Amino acid sequence: MNLKPSSFLTLGMIRLGARSGYAIKKAAHVSTQFFWPVSLAQVYPELARLERSGLLRRRDDPHGARRRAAYTLTDEGEQALLAWLCAYAPGATPVQFRDEGLLRLFFADALPAQDQLALVQALRARASRAGAHVREQVVPLSSSLEQGGVRYPALVARLAADTYGYIEDWLAKLEADLLER
Amino acid sequence: MNLKPSSFLTLGMIRLGARSGYAIKKAAHVSTQFFWPVSLAQVYPELARLERSGLLRRRDDPHGARRRAAYTLTDEGEQALLAWLCAYAPGATPVQFRDEGLLRLFFADALPAQDQLALVQALRARASRAGAHVREQVVPLSSSLEQGGVRYPALVARLAADTYGYIEDWLAKLEADLLER
DNA sequence: GCTCACATGTAATCCGTTACATGATTCT
DNA sequence: AGAATCATGTAACGGATTACATGTGAGC
Fold first, then answer.
1. I need a surface site. Which of A25, A144, A174, B165 has the fewest CB within 10 A?
2. Distance between CA atoms of B124 and A34, rounded to whole angstroms?
3. Which chain A residue has the Cα nearest residue B173?
4. Which of the 69-108 residues on chain B come under 7 Å of nucleic strand D at their beta carbon?
5. pLDDT digit string (tens) for chain A, length 181 residues
6. What is the spatial distance between Cα B163 and Cα A89, in angstroms, rounded to a whole number?
7. Residue A42, CA: closest nucleotide via C1'?
């Protein structure tokens, strides 16, 4: 069985207390979405796969007449998650993100000065809004986990918020440079 | 015809002087690779598509007995590129990167303290190496374009290098915090 | 009563990667 | 002579997204 990062996301979210596929998607949407997007159509087949492999146990957990599944980790599932967490070798998994905004900036020399400025402003606005979103929506939610001793989600959220802030400042300086001419 | 970011990467690289598919891949490898990865197997079909759509012109440009193609932008191609560069609406294209390292950090509460520290150290080392790579390989190359008035590739490279530096420092502080206990 | 959130899945499609296949030139 | 680089493609595969399809519960 071939376990991908999305498999471990699934296992990890269940370990953090998400029980249903829907709950996993919801939790991912407000936390890991920025560095590991998932869609519902991915989650359900993945849950089935993980159950077939013996890493998850599925119970029926209907809510009234609405059917619902409740998943829990098996010992094998817990072990697989821990092994993956320890197996990180930088270099094996190079950083790579896809960002259409940066791609445009890369080619911005093709634009007249005015449009260059507009593009940089748009990118700064985007960083600003992304940072605000993380600070206002993600950090408070993940901080509430800290009382339970789960602190890394909040750390990652703060790292993300601070990094967006840094990029915003960087782009603001570039904007000022462009305006000087 | 449906133009994707990779289509504009192709057009943009040709505008910056890359002539063959191989040259586009090579240029992308040392510049846009970090925020928009491409593979050769993507470039060639894309070039064919863009030529069929009239955005590129293809000439034969053999080197000895070795066949080679030389592409240039048509007016339509230039217009399409400029239109895309101006069309950036933040919100329409949300930032999203996939990072297995951050995903692991998010779930790091599952690990014993010692392994948590090792993971943070590995992530810092990765940021450090990525930053060094950009500073040493990408910035010098793109800076050499600045004499020709092409300055955004170097700006993007510096933004990347500085951001990796910021993340490295952030993780170093986290590392110190973890060691204090 | 209506709308939104909860909840689970499948099908079609798109996009990208790895691996394969081939061959010429340049450098050591 | 051999290795690395230049150069162009195709085929198979895998992984993720969008859209489709269906139905219940809770709050206004």
1. A144
2. 19
3. A159
4. 69
5. 789 999 999 999 999 999 999 999 999 999 999 999 999 999 999 999 999 999 999 999 999 999 999 999 999 999 999 999 999 887 766 667 889 999 999 999 999 999 999 999 999 999 999 999 999 999 999 999 999 999 999 999 999 999 999 999 999 999 999 999 8
6. 21
7. D16
